[in-house]
Write a structure and sequence with these properties.
single chain; about 280 residues; alpha/beta; TIM Barrel; two-stranded antiparallel sheet; 6 helices; globular
Length: about 280
Amino acid sequence: MTRRLRWLIVVALAVAAALLAAPGTATAAPTATTAPSTQVGYDVSHPQCGSTLPPDRAFGIVGVNGGLATRANSCLADQLAWAWRSNGVVTAQPKAQLYLNTANPGQVLELVTTWPTTGTSPYGSCAGTNSRACSWRYGWERAQNSVVSFFSLAARDARVDGRPDSYTWWLDVETMNTWQEGSTEALARNRATLEGVTAYLVSRGAEVGLYSTRQQWTEIAGTVPSDSNLAGLPSWLAGSTSLSDAEGDCARTPLVPRSRVTLTQYVVDGLDRNHSCV
């Protein structure tokens, strides 16, 4: 082999090595595909205190109360911090939302210490009786207590936003809580309570929505007049057991006039999941 030929071979090998080492020319190692973020939201509250919550969620809805309107969720701050870390891929749904337990114990007011005895309302003055005026005041005061006593305490945590107007507040309307029953006037007093809750939250700049099933809503609130401040509030419908059913529920009739179903809930393995209809 001549000296020139050996030199040409060395040069050629050097060039080939340089090309293989150059960025983008070597065969790239396969990269792992990033899993898409879930579009499922979850709602949690005091029953989930101490439990491991879903690590991936589009949004979280957290209960302020501990099952009753007069009781606090003891892990509200931790659960709110979890909600704020949601992935946010469903842009129509805020990452962190809240819900309040509601009730109207006016028919057993002698058994409760939180029934109002004074105060004004759109239905006149409350005098401590089982009336629309006192029902409205009860709703206002329970909402005020939930925001000032329960939410404000949790909002001292640096991980959460402490402004009530940063949230949508859903009113949880279920028959497992204490409601008046037996007459048209009883339904009107129940609506007055929900109107009082709504009025207080709106006074704090919050968005308000309504959560229930159609059957429970009818038993508790009946038909909502178009001039009520409940009319037009978005509806969050419960009762499904699968995502496909929840998707179909988006087309159901909302709870109140001029409303729209924006969320539907379905339960899988004991955990409340939520589908956004918007």
